[in-house]
Design brief:
With about 80 residues, the protein is an alpha+beta fold. It is built from three helices and two strands; from the N terminus they run H-H-E-E-H. The protein has a two-stranded antiparallel sheet with strand order 1-2. A hairpin with a 5-residue loop joins strand 1 and strand 2. The longest helix is centred in the first third of the chain and has 11 residues.
């Protein structure tokens, strides 16, 4: 078996400046817990997981998910 046989080819992404609700919507719609974060050139600059979003929401100092940017929750750099 090769990676090509099991990998996801239609990948949804978000940007660092998207709000957390965008990432949550992608995860909900795609039934996943992980979204790549890309820059304006399409290069992966980070990843955001459902755990990252939960922690950011819980420690958001009274900000709602619509007011927390993905860049404030994502894990980076990517290796």
């Amino acid at each position: 078996m090769t990676v090509n046989e099991v990998m996801q080819k239609d990948v949804a992404t978000c940007t660092p400046n998207d709000d957390m609700m965008m990432a949550v919507k992608i995860m909900h719609d795609r039934k996943c817990g992980f979204v790549p974060v890309v820059d304006s050139h399409g290069s992966v600059v980070g990843v955001v997981t459902d755990r990252d979003l939960s922690i950011a929401a819980a420690t958001g100092k009274h900000r709602t998910a619509e007011h927390i940017a993905v860049k404030d929750a994502m894990s980076h750099p990517v290796f």
